[in-house]
Amino acid sequence: MGTPDTTREPCPDCILDDMGGAFGMGITGGSVYHFIRGIYNSPAGARLSGGAQYVRMNAPKVGGSFAVWGGLFSTMDCAMVYARQKEDPWNSIIAGAATGGLLSLRQGFRASGRAALFGGAILALIQGVQLIAADKVASAAQQQQVFMGEAASLPPAQVYGQSVPVPETSSASEAGSGSWFGGLFGKGKQKGSEDKSGSKTQVLESFDAPPVPTYEFN
Amino acid sequence: MATNHDESTRLYHPYQSYELPINAQHLYKLPTSPEYLFTEESLKKRRSWGENLTFYAGTCYLGGSVAGAAAGVISGVKSFEYGDTTKLKINRILNSSGHTGRSLGCRIGAAGLIYAGIESGVVAYTDRDDVWTSVVAGLGTGAVFRAARGVRSAAVAGALGGMVAGGVVAGKQVLKRYAHI
């Protein structure tokens, strides 16, 4: 369903990232909210310190509950991806339902079922909005490409290839990209070392295919 | 004749992982550095600040809540009373592990978030990333955590945090060098 998301880490590591991101969001939002509440609820002259006190008491808890939600959701999402072996909006919807259900399991089956429905519905809404937004972005990009014409493919790659060696310093990556780009501009093969049996071994650049064997008897 | 043993490439025999008596007629020169498709990726030396924040916050929260849950289970088991039914026992365990796990996880997660934020800020400001960055970040975290109790306790906590952070980084380097982990 469209291109895979390359901005996120692959599945097991994304759980930590999502948990951390949710924690950060929860703490930031909780800090703002509880700071304002603390300022409002404190006597004059002690407003700032009252706000700070409220933040210290309540913001980590908000962050923690967001983190639990985010971590559980991400775990369920990864589990669904692993179980179904595809990447779909359905994974997120089912994961949201499972998270909502799990988090209120202690309140009984009815409450758990209701929370699962709510979680699934919220995620379905989010996925729907994402799909519509992605559709709009894709159609806008397509229209832009049609207007731009064929100026896209070959020249920019060559221009890029020539301008790239400039920012490279003595970092270790230079050798790797240097040989890749150098080969593009025709470095050529080098004669290689002798092999064990005495037959000549050719050393190729890594992207060179070996020459097609000739059917001659040596 | 040709300098095909320079540092940046290594020779690769296509059938080297198979135990076959094939003598290669062609060896490939593979680069020894990681191969990147885009050069902007190859020039990146460390995590971006957002990745740093989410990673540290998530790891610390997870570690803290797991540790807190374990401690809570132990304290829950200790608080069993004579004549408790199984339901009551499970309830005690869940309550105490949930409570301790949540509170410890939140605190350590907040510490991790602040540490990551300060570290990213120091790296962005001074453009260097070594032990001292971690020490300064640990100092800052300790100070922020005890800022409400007064300047003296903030300074003490900051010094403690700096030493712990420096110790962890130095310990990791020592472990890598001598224990080959």
From TrEMBL, chain A:
- Residue ranges, compositional bias (Low complexity): 168-178
Pfam entry (one):
Tim17
Q: Region labeled Disordered — which residues?
A: 165-218
Signal peptide (residue range):
none
Question: Which cell locations does it reside in?
Answer: Mitochondrion inner membrane
**The keyword Membrane is annotated on this UniProt entry:** yes
The record's keywords, sorted A to Z, are: Membrane, Mitochondrion, Mitochondrion inner membrane, Transmembrane, Transmembrane helix
Q: How the protein sits in the membrane?
A: Multi-pass membrane protein
Q: PANTHER family annotated for this entry?
A: MITOCHONDRIAL IMPORT INNER MEMBRANE TRANSLOCASE SUBUNIT TIM-17, MITOCHONDRIAL IMPORT INNER MEMBRANE TRANSLOCASE SUBUNIT TIM17-1
What family does the Swiss-Prot or TrEMBL record give for this protein?
A: Belongs to the Tim17/Tim22/Tim23 family.
Record protein name field: Mitochondrial import inner membrane translocase subunit TIM17-2-like
Originating species: Brassica cretica (Mustard)
Could you read off the lineage of the organism from its UniProt record? Eukaryota, Viridiplantae, Streptophyta, Embryophyta, Tracheophyta
UniProtKB/TrEMBL annotation, chain B:
Q: Which PANTHER family match?
A: GENOME ASSEMBLY, CHROMOSOME: A08, TIM23
Q: Lineage, please?
A: Eukaryota, Viridiplantae, Streptophyta, Embryophyta, Tracheophyta
- Native source species: Brassica cretica (Mustard)
The keyword Transmembrane appears for this protein: yes
Keywords (A to Z) from UniProt = Membrane, Transmembrane, Transmembrane helix
Q: Does the keyword Metal-binding apply?
A: no
- Top-level taxon: Eukaryota
What is this protein's record name? Mitochondrial import inner membrane translocase subunit TIM23
Topology versus the membrane: Multi-pass membrane protein
Q: Where in the cell is it found?
A: Membrane
Q: Which InterPro entries match?
A: Tim23-like (IPR045238)
One Pfam entry for this protein is Tim17
